[in-house]
Amino acid sequence: MAKVAFIGLGVMGFPMAGHLRQKGGHDVVVYNRTTAKAEAWVSQFGGALGKTPAEAAKDADFVFTCVGNDDDLRSVTTCPDGVLSSMKAGAILIDNTTASAEVARELAEAASGKGCGFIDAPVSGGQAGAENGVLTVMCGGDEETFAKAKPVIDAYARMVGLMGPVGSGQLTKMMNQICIAGVVQGLAEAIHFGKKAGLDIEKVVEVISKGAAGSWQMENRHKTMNAGTYDFGFAVDWMRKDLDIVLREAKRNGSTLPLTALVDQFYGDVQSMGGNRWDTSSLLARLERNK
Amino acid sequence: MAKVAFIGLGVMGFPMAGHLRQKGGHDVVVYNRTTAKAEAWVSQFGGALGKTPAEAAKDADFVFTCVGNDDDLRSVTTCPDGVLSSMKAGAILIDNTTASAEVARELAEAASGKGCGFIDAPVSGGQAGAENGVLTVMCGGDEETFAKAKPVIDAYARMVGLMGPVGSGQLTKMMNQICIAGVVQGLAEAIHFGKKAGLDIEKVVEVISKGAAGSWQMENRHKTMNAGTYDFGFAVDWMRKDLDIVLREAKRNGSTLPLTALVDQFYGDVQSMGGNRWDTSSLLARLERNK
């Protein structure tokens, strides 16, 4: 049992912090920009509430952050009243935000200056994974820090991997998002084509899903895509934020990602259609917009 | 046990005809444009050899074709000396070629004019699937004809599905190829990016392959892609032929396939690199061509 702070109680952070309290049995102090959510969390899980990130983090052995983007992350860590202004030496900052590898390295350095450890630890598995405590957590950091952090992270995870030095968790998450971009657009085009061709999409998936065309997205999303339902939680706005991080990192490391860049533009079309909160499989809605 | 003719003993047809003989126990007469291959088949499996498609097919209850493209298919079916010039009434023509839905309908009509049945039955599973007799067979045709053909097809298949009326097998195969185009290009970009980012690709796949980014291609091709090995049998030239069929059918049915069209162009680049016989995962080699 450890003293834990959790900053950012969004659709992911809220249940993750809950698992740290209930499954992990830790002392949890939470902070959220909108106080009402933090109060709701405390009344559900019985931990304590900090008025600022710094106040939530001051006694913690492990400080988790799970916010929107690089700037949100800086505002709760390195800015005044951020967690790094109060964290005690030897404590570890674990960032669950999907952010840039650059900000991960920046935070690791800032943490190191305070005698603290840092792990970048973006997750995949979506809202359902967070609620069921079965997320995949992709970590970047040194082995010693990871060894201390892993047993705590386990409270909300099914798979926790150390991918390499600081930033490697974020870079792994980027690979994940690149794969998804290709799989989903391909699947969307296939379903669009199949419907126009008069095929029974269910029957097609039954026959082809175990072979070379198969994917998690095909297994888990073809029914809802075929029905035109796009409410599975991981929103187009968030995917565009992630792809923006990917494309900036690709520019930096000299990789060329033509399909990823194209699919990012397609998600822009979905936003223009009012689909900001639709899930990522709504690339099909874009193909069908002129039907 | 039935009388079977098999036309086209390529990397797929050769072992498929073998399974009809050995696993199915059928009387098989084969024809191949290059006679040496047909002779090799007969000396291995002990069936008989026809000098023309018509001669091979004349006594058969089931006539299989497995050739390169629409025109090859017409040359062994509706052209002089083609199988339809000799097939007896009540026999069934089963076409395993990946061809257009149009030629399937054309052949079904021609077969019907002779009192014969027709099933379009393109396969997936590649050379290994053909050799092990575990192909997926996507069929189009009427239920009665399918019911007669299925037990014979079973000799080389793990999964045989009736997808709808004539042409539906081909249309299903097209959906399959569209999905593959997206999955492989996305995976290629992810690996390209990951290598540039200094990640351990094996470790990344271990962590992300069961989640939303996962695919058959990721599981089965990431190692060879990471090693730059592109000799898995399903060649770029064949994929371009298939995508050409897909894009023409899409034009006909009014679906728009931007990613599929783009990946088709990318395969054109691979051809320019001398990769005509590389397998479909060589999209990665294209991304790395300027490294």
Quick structural overview:
Two copies of one chain form a homodimer. The first copy, chain A, is α/β, with parallel strands linked by helices. Chain A has helices at about 15-20, 35-45, 55, 70-75, 100-115, 125-130, 145-155, 170-195, 200-210, 215-225, 235-255, 260-270, 285, and strands spanning about 5, 25-30, 50, 60-65, 90-95, 115-120, 125, 135-140, 155-165.
Description:
The structure is a homodimer of 291-residue chains. Chain A is of the alpha/beta class and 291 residues long. Chain A has helices spanning 13-22, 35-45, 53-57, 70-77, 101-113, 126-131, 143-153, 168-196, 201-208, 216-227, 236-253, 258-272, 283-287; strands at 3-7, 27-31, 48-49, 62-65, 92-95, 117-120, 123-124, 135-140, 157-164. In chain A, helix 8 crosses helix 11, helix 8 (168-196) packs across helix 12 and helix 11 runs antiparallel to helix 12 (258-272). The N and C termini of chain A lie far apart (57 Å). In chain A, the strands form 2 sheets. A 6-stranded parallel beta sheet of chain A has the order 3-2-1-4-5-6, with helices on both faces. In chain A, strands 7-8-9 form a 3-stranded mixed beta sheet. At the A-B interface, strand 9, helix 8, helix 9, helix 10 and helix 11 of A face strand 9, helix 8, helix 9, helix 10 and helix 11 of B.
